[in-house]
Amino acid sequence: xxxxxxxxxxxxxxxxxxxxxxxxxxxxxxxxxxxxxxxxxxxxxxxxxxxxxxxxxxxxxxxxxxxxxxxxxxxxxxxxxxxxxxxxxxxxxxxxxxxxxxxxxxxxxxxxxxxxxxxxxxxxxxxxxxxxxxxxxxxxxxxxxxxxxxxxxxxxxxxxxxxxxxxxxxxxxxxxxxxxxxxxxxxxxxxxxxxxxxxxxxxxxx
Length: 206
Known about the structure:
By secondary structure, this protein is an alpha+beta fold. It has 3 domains: 1-31 and 188-206, no CATH class; 34-88 and 167-177, no CATH class; 93-154, no CATH class. The chain has helices at residues 2-5, 57-65, 71-77, 83-86, 91-101, 146-149, 155-166, 177-187; strands spanning 8-13, 22-27, 46-50, 108-113, 116-118, 121-124, 129-130, 150-154, 168-172, 196-198, 201-203. A 4-stranded mixed β-sheet has the order 2-1-11-10, with no helix packed on it. Strands 7-4-8 form a 3-stranded antiparallel β-sheet. Helix 2 crosses helix 3 (71-77). The two termini are 28 Å apart.
């Protein structure tokens, strides 16, 4: 649906001589949308959403907006360019991917810090990536034992965590979705230039 809203360009296709070619009409996939601050002023237009296993943009759109045709807004808002790479995998697909990618899913992928406190105050966050020899030194000079300074993250858990991060998205509030669509359509229009034909079509710059 999103690609239907993209403007077209007339692309000059030729072998060697640009004067001996034909224009073909294609979608301008490089079109970018600028969401103007004074139109969409702050995060109050968004809602946090956690994608459940098996959900797709069209199913979320239907649940929230009563139609699947706003699925493209979810991709645009979250800057998703490649649905296969940017959308979270379902559990079955993820397990298959892990088995195919790693010889040993339980092997250590990397190490992360274990949170540290000093005099009742946290002085080191949990989950910072470090090497396997990392040991935390407290302000008083005491060295925290290796196994208490960092912990291993397996290949399996690394992929699970990465996939779960993709589940955390924003969606436009239902009361504002039509306004957002209007803004997108206006932003995608071409403005007059030497290549301009109309607001949905122009010649390409070769």
